[in-house]
Amino acid sequence: MIQLLKSSDYQRMPWKNGLGVTDQIDLALSEVKSSQPYAWRLSSALVTASNPFSIFEGYDRLLSVVEGDGLILNQTPLVPFQVCEFSGDDHTDCQLMGSAVRDLGLIYNPKLFKARMQFHSLPAVSETVFSLSEEIQFFYVVTGKMRVADQTAEAQDCFKLTQEKQVKIQNTGSETLAFYQISLSRH
Questions:
Q1: What's the pLDDT at 179?
Q2: Distance CA 132, CA 22 (A)
Q3: I need a labelling partner for 93 at 20 to 30 A (CA). Which of 60, 76, 119, 170 fits?
Q4: Are strands 21-29 and 38-47 parallel, antiparallel or unpaired?
Q5: How far is CA 11 from the centre of its chain?
């Protein structure tokens, strides 16, 4: 199944620590009663000030900078399009490297899921085919327009693919298409 998730439909939510807001792209609620309300959550946030990250006990996190100069997480630089993996249990101090930053983050339960996040680009007026082995795939657009199965996603929109074996991604525009592929599979 292929779904187009439009940024205008994302649910805006306060950060767990109350120091900002995030645009929740999608999530899977936890199937068991526990202190963890969801199995995974994909979101994007505008970071406008240096601050500590929220603690998410029992979760792992993947994070990347999609707009802005970058972040320093516990004194380690995170430059745009680089992917950082860390434990949600960690106390993580976040410093801006310059202007405000938009990030893309996946929080997931590592006991239930394996996850990865990769940055890709596709030249103007071209296409590529991805073979998919994971159960759930997201394709998040940073710049350009992505066409999949007669639907078009623009910057900050996202395609969600469930149980698909392959996908053809087209860049029909005159600029480079920049996007992330986020993959989730059950253990």
A1: 98
A2: 28
A3: 119
A4: antiparallel
A5: 14
